[in-house]
């Protein structure tokens, strides 16, 4: 029997507008799918305004919802609440929906395009790993990105590129993931960005954002998940929501509003073991 | 270099049949009459305000494209060949695009290498598995054709994204009709004035099936700062459709609406002159303010037609170009009517070394370049320029292709010293609707005004001519 958990996830995003907005349009990547290491027991998605949610599968096989809400309103909440059974598969990702051959994930994007510094870093890790282009290299890369880049929520933001974060040697899970992807793609290893949730081992349940990690393709194994921020392969603590070429492809909420002055956004993420929840 | 094919004259100096009347007329016309008509033409163009802006030039932001008053003439038989070739090629392009974004049979057959598609920036993963109305991707194509002898027409470039230039075709004809009525009376010239009607019929025919009886068509422009804005407003006017910018449109429940003084009006077909990257900030570049947030959701839901479809760049990319003969054969099981220029792809190492050794004979182009920027014309280049390109293609082989320098045909052209042959190309516009393909006879002839020059791009000092297709 594989080790496993049942994780309860609550993720709320609340936008507040200085003056009433006339309308909002959003595209959501907030719904996980089943695969060998996770089973979605239930999942609810709620938008606080009266709006019809249109569900689709995007080009990468992710579930998306989009909606338009007409104002006027000064607050908009997008909430998910669900439980997912997870299994530790040693980072191996199988049973996922694949719409492209792995080679698609060698594409460069503006967020992951490498510069000379990242190219040199990638080569250095490659030669230290003994020229091995497989798991050994990827684990070495995982260790190096995790060790070299200091976790710091201050200097970077959602549009920071791999190049910028690598120069700073600082960043959050998004930045570490972009750097990992950029470096391994430059070595000819297909890699992709994963957006999802992480159950922390230190007992902290409340988080201020979702989590991000990478998947890299190893010919004899398939997709393998590497969490550069934590320096580990993905485990039963990871809930995978969406994959893409970079953060833009899996952004939980991409939207625009018409009018409404300045805006604040408040994000609350809670990831907890469902059983413990019940015992409370 | 070989002597170029002269479209007006046989090698012995006698005029070819299609040019017999024109040649006689040119022989008899007083030089000052031609000079006067040239001035008049320039005045008319200035009055119309038809200008274009050149990227990378600060002064003279708006410029007039030089117009040559001597028409370029194609016989009915020549046009028939070109017409059939264009229809065949665009048909194949549409089948290829559908395949690339659905079954990928051409990749499975090993005809095009996977990475040339999947790692190509102009391939749009977002279009994968996406149904487009009536399976038509390229509704408006501008195919650049050059001629090297009496029978051979080569496609130099396919333009399947947002091809421009058709306004010049229409304006050139209008001005010629005003300036040279006597020349028209001596020829039976096929009309081009019906292009806007043909375009509108094409656009209406491709509306989604859910559309009401009379589809609402709009033309989406990036705005007044775009180099082709004149053409956008010109065409919207001729088509009788609204010229809109991104901010004039909005999405509600996966349907596109246009803001009007009478309230929102549903939009069924968008003739968009905005590049893919800028169409929808929720799907593509998030910093784009030119597009319509959520437009792709309406498109993916099948509620609106975009003309051209998103992702058509994977058919007109210069690296894909070299596969066009195989593409025609694969989808239509026919021999291509229009020829392809032999192309060396520097991504392949044996091609690269050939190109590197023969740069002085070749034309080298950047795969993602356009408008004649970033290219090398070997025979006309200095040794320093050649050395620079040799280094460039070694560093980024994937970014370059090379072709032999073709001896483009020449047409008589007014120059300072009188009338002299100048190299020309032709951009016909191919319209693909649900019902049929429409091509108005002719297209835009571009002419390299400098003696010996092979670069016809307006951004590089080329001019235009009216193109006459004779009704037998």
Strand tally of chain A = 15
Mean pLDDT value of chain A? 94
- Element order, helices and strands of chain A? EEEEEHHEHEHEEEEEEHEEH
| Silhouette of chain B | globular
Q: What value does the Rg of chain A take, in angstroms? A: 19 Å
Per CATH, which architecture of the largest domain in chain A? Roll
| SS strand fraction of chain A | 35-45%
Provide a descriptive summary of the structure in words:
Helices cover 21% and strands 44% of the residues of chain A. In chain A, helix 2 crosses helix 4 (173-186). Chain A is built from six helices and 15 strands. Chain A has two domains: 4-86 and 252-279, Immunoglobulin-like (Sandwich), CATH 2.60.40.2250; 91-248, C8orf32 fold. By secondary structure, chain A is an alpha+beta fold. In chain A, strands 1, 2, 3, 4, 9, 14 and 15 form a seven-stranded antiparallel β-sheet that branches. The mean pLDDT of chain A is 94. Chain A has helices spanning 116-128, 135-148, 162-168, 173-186, 247-250, 274-279; strands at residues 4-31, 38-47, 54-57, 63-87, 92-93, 150-151, 170-171, 191-198, 206-207, 211-218, 222-227, 232-233, 238-244, 253-258, 263-273. Chain B has 472 residues and is α+β, with helices and mostly antiparallel strands. Among the domains of chain B are: 17-125 and 138-192 and 317-340 and 406-469, no CATH class; 344-404, 2-Layer Sandwich (Dna Ligase, domain 1). Chain B contains 15 helices and 23 strands. Chain B has helices at residues 20-28, 31-48, 76-100, 105-108, 114-118, 166-179, 181-185, 195-205, 229-239, 295-300, 313-316, 318-321, 324-332, 349-357, 383-395, and strands spanning 52-53, 62-63, 67-74, 140-147, 153-159, 217-220, 242-244, 249-252, 255-258, 265-266, 269-272, 305-307, 339-340, 344-345, 362-366, 376-377, 400-404, 410-415, 418-427, 429-432, 437-439, 444-448, 462-469. In chain B, the strands form six sheets. Chain B has a five-stranded mixed β-sheet. The longest helix of chain B has 25 residues, at 76-100. Chains A and B meet through strand 1, strand 4 and strand 14 of A and helix 5 and strand 8 of B.
